[in-house]
Structures are given as C-alpha cells and as structure tokens.
Amino acid sequence: MAFLTEPEPPRGVAETILPGIRRLVAANPTPMTYHGTNTYLIDGPDGLTVLDPGPDLPDHVAAILAATGGKIARIVLTHTHHDHLGALPALKAATGAPTYGWHRSAEESFSADHKLQDGDMVAGMTAVFTPGHAADHLCFAMPGGLLFSGDHVMSWSTSIVSPPGGSMGDYFASLERLLARDDVAYLGGHGPLLRDPHPYVRELLAHRRARETAIATALRAGPATNHALMEQLYSKLNPTLRRAAERNVFAHLLKLEAEGKVRREGEIWAAA
Questions:
Q1: According to the model, what pLDDT value does residue 237 have?
Q2: Does residue 223 share a domain with residue 170?
Q3: How do the residues of the chain divide into helix, strand and coil, expressed in percent and rounded to 5?
Q4: For residue 164, is the peptide bond before it cis, meaning its omega torsion is within 30 degrees of 0?
Q5: Residue 239, pLDDT score
Q6: C-alpha distances in angstroms, 129 versus 19, 24, 104, 126, 229?
C-alpha cells in the first residue's frame, strides 16, 4: 500500500490544520505511533474541544494548556489506548473539563463523564462506532464531510488489530461502514490529513483480504502456529514490528475460526 508521510512536526506547537482545528503532536514517536499521537483542538460556538489528549507526558499536557489558555469545554476520546488516554487525568484535573467516550470503556481505570452511544452528538460532531482496532473505538463526524478517524484509519500506516480488545471481524465491518459514508477527509490519530479517503479505505480492505487469503492458503499446505505464519508472511518486516504483525495474524485466525474456515488444537492452526 502507498501511505502518506510528513516532516516531523514542531513539538509543543498547536498548528492549524483546517479552519477552527489545530493539532498538537505528542513527543511519543515509535514505529507504532509515527511522529506521535495527534491531539486536536477544535473551536466551537460553545467552547473548545480537546479530541484525544494523548499520552501521559507533562510537556504535552503543558502544551495543551498553553494553546488553550486552560479554557477547555470538554475532552473527547476516540478510544482508551494509553497513547490517547494517558494525559486525560492531568488535563481534567487542571481544567475540570468533562470527558466523553464510548459508554462501555475498554479501560478499567476510565469511565467517561458522558457515555456516548452510536449516533450521539457532542460539540457538533456525530459519534460513529467503529470497533476493530479497539473495542470502544469511535470516529467523530463533523458537518461538511470531515471525520476524525482515530486509529481506525490512519494515512501513514495500517492499524494493528490485537485481540482480545481488537477484533478483525469488527475491523472489516467498520471499514465497510466508513465506505458507506460520504466523508471527504479524515484526520487520524497519527499522521497527516487524508483527503478523498474512500480509495484508501478500499485498499485497506483489499490488503486485509489478501492477508487473510494468504493465511488460509498457508494452512491448506499444512498446520502451523501463529508465530510460524507470521514468520512466513512477514519475513521482510522490520523486527520491531513483528510482535504487532503476530497479533494481526492472530486476529485474522480468530475471524477465520469464527467463520468455520480454520480450526486449532492448542497452539496449532489448521485448515478446517
């Protein structure tokens, strides 16, 4: 697949991405997070919304407070992975801003003040339930076709789907759901703005279907462990990403098992 890239962003600076929307990129770059987690500052008639406060880094929290003057109307979460949730306690303590997230949090330590259902409105945005990468993942749609896509769709990379919190079956269904929408641009949880997103989302689905076909083909040649399948299918992958690749393979296997296409005995998987 062809992904988008961007120069490393300035740290501690809220840059305008679109009118009324600024982005702060946290200093948590890794092979899994690109340059870092995107925290969005969204202006609205009823105050400023922070979407995804980011990781638990004091400098990042300080940058959010400096960029907003501490005047935050609400804090909204796409999902509760720690690189998105970690800064929330400190930001809430500093501002008293109420929190919004999926009504069934996947993180035991967090329960949103305002528990969202699919289709609920917050700060002029519509919550769109998109499980797959995380069980509690939400995208947020703004009028005019802009979608905050969190980690469900990111322009710089495919998403990891790691059971039990991640589900490949849900991920496929959520991608199909986005294809049925008419959004014209995505702002993801990591990486740059993605315009005309539908061809890219179709590529994501095609990539996952091809990976699933490769797994099924490999198992028809003989039983294998999850790790052995990863080694076969991702032999040229950066070693630092192999653990994530193994989790993705496992998620595919669980989906295929639920569909009756593969079976397992202990750690060994075989064609059904």
A1: 72
A2: no
A3: 30, 25, 45
A4: yes
A5: 80
A6: 25, 24, 11, 10, 31
Contact call for residues 64 and 91 (beta carbons, < 8 A): yes
> Does residue 175 sit within a domain?
yes
CA dist 71 and 246 (Å) reads 43
Could you give the CA distance from residue 205 to residue 219 in angstroms, rounded to a whole number?
21
pLDDT of residue 43: 98
Read off the tokens for 94. 């500093």
**Do 74 and 50 form a contact (C-beta atoms < 8 A)?**
yes
Instruction: For residues 177 and 186, give the distance between their C-alpha atoms in angstroms, rounded to a whole number.
Output: 14
> Consecutive sets of 10 residues in the chain, 272 residues long: mean pLDDT of each?
95 97 98 97 96 98 98 98 98 98 97 98 98 98 98 97 98 98 98 98 97 96 96 82 93 98 96 96
CATH of the domain at 221: 1.10.10.10
